[in-house]
Amino acid sequence: MKLKNFTRVILCVMLLTSGVAHFTSLKQEFESLVPQCISYDKKLVIEITGITELILGACMLLVRKYRKWIGIILAIFLITVFPGNMHQFSRGIDAFGLNDDAIRLLRLFLQPLLIYLAIWSTSDWRLQKNMND
Fold it and tell me: How much is the pTM?
């Protein structure tokens, strides 16, 4: 299996697992990560992000024709949920086994890697090459 395919499978599993978790007993942990500045109902925010993760996870593997756009959309999604990760770190919120500031900080630094992998694993970088012309 090529490295890009393997990476897409890993991202897909992560998204599907996390998406399902949004609708389990872990829902309260997800809700605790929604920053105060988000004025919408936390339950609705969690349901929308969970559904989004399920759709993106499935599309990562099943929709080959638009794969590069799915990667870009996933990268944008990962950017939009980053404030929740920052909120978890800044408030010292224990959730999902991240019960130490060092681990929560590491999670912040892993987010840019996930964003990069979302684009890299779904693209042949033509978009980047065209932008440089």
Answer: 0.86
